[in-house]
Amino acid sequence: MKLNLLLLILLPAMSVMAQEPDSSSALFNMREAERNFARASVMIGRNAAFAENFADESVIYTEKWITNGKQFSKDRKASPVVLKWEPEFMDISDSRDFGISTGPWEAQEYRPNTAPVATGYFLTVWKKQSDGVWKVILDGGSTTPVLKGSRHNFSFPAGADKTLPEPPMINVALSCKELVDRENQILSDWKKSSLSFTYASFLAPDARMQLNGHVPSTNSDTINLWIAHLDKKLTWKSVGSGAATSGDLGFTYGLLEITGNPEVTKGHYVRIWRKHSGTDWKIVLEMMNLN
């Protein structure tokens, strides 16, 4: 990994307290879908669980972004490793049929009492299908140093588990175009001035960053420190985007690259964006994973 980052591992500062969602809410149902997905991974294996829980059109990163995640999982060669995870933070759109989930994962050999061989944080985008079932439409993640002990608490933004009046219906294609335009703007500004302020100006005040090699953080000082130590030659190329019909929550994903002498460092990213009425799209969750 060729990010010029400090070796210090900074613990995340949570912007919301641990809580339990209303059991009648869409957020609760989305969390149950995530938990059932994780249980299936242990019981029937990662590949079968992914194939069962991915939408027919789903995006996953496997050395490159592919858009047939469900079929890829069906065809993927089995591995003697069990993949475990637990949702730690979730958010949901005003339409209550589109949301995101993130939390710690670990890979462990199929033997009792073995230490994890790898750990990290996942980032998943969920969408409720026409039959009312929640399915994964995008899945990515980053790695961390092996975590010791449990620090897990579930949280979500205030009011995310409440019923809302009928939300406005926004053209999804229009929202996706706005998101791509914001992607182009942040890259253009970064190339002109690769400073932490430049990047941070696109972040929401309570943004969460998941940077490869670090435990995620919502602390603005920590995030600014990480940004300040990003390689100034870091660039990204948007591959795709998606948004809720309510026009308030969306994502972009793509490839990272640092051109050097003479190597090229590659990786992937996912950005979760939120838009409030009368404002520009802001990044509420950033996941970067450089090789």
Describe the structure.
With 291 residues, this protein is of the alpha+beta class. The chain is built from 6 helices and 12 strands. It has helices at 26-44, 46-53, 69-75, 172-192, 196-200, 220-228; strands at 54-61, 65-66, 81-85, 89-92, 98-109, 118-128, 134-144, 203-211, 234-243, 249-259, 264-274, 282-290. The strands form 2 sheets. Strands 1, 2, 3, 4, 5, 6 and 7 form a 7-stranded mixed beta sheet that branches. A 5-stranded mixed beta sheet has the order 8-12-11-10-9. It is globular, with a radius of gyration of 18 Å.
Short structural summary:
With 291 residues, this protein is of the alpha+beta class. The protein is 24% helix and 35% strand.
Distance between the termini: 5 Å
Molecular shape: globular
Helices and strands: which structural class? Answer: alpha+beta
Do you know the CATH architecture of the largest domain?
Roll
Strand content: 35-45%
Task: Report the average pLDDT across residues.
Answer: 89
Binned, the helix content reads: 10-25%
Q: Treating each run of at least 4 consecutive H or I residues as one helix, how many helices?
A: 6
User: What about the largest sheet?
Assistant: 7 strands, mixed
Strand count: 12
**What's the order of the H and E elements?**
HHEEHEEEEEHHEHEEEE
Tell me the domain tally.
Answer: 2
The top level CATH class name of the largest domain = Alpha Beta
Q: Give the low-confidence spans.
A: 1-16
- The name CATH uses for the topology of the largest domain is Nuclear Transport Factor 2, Chain: A
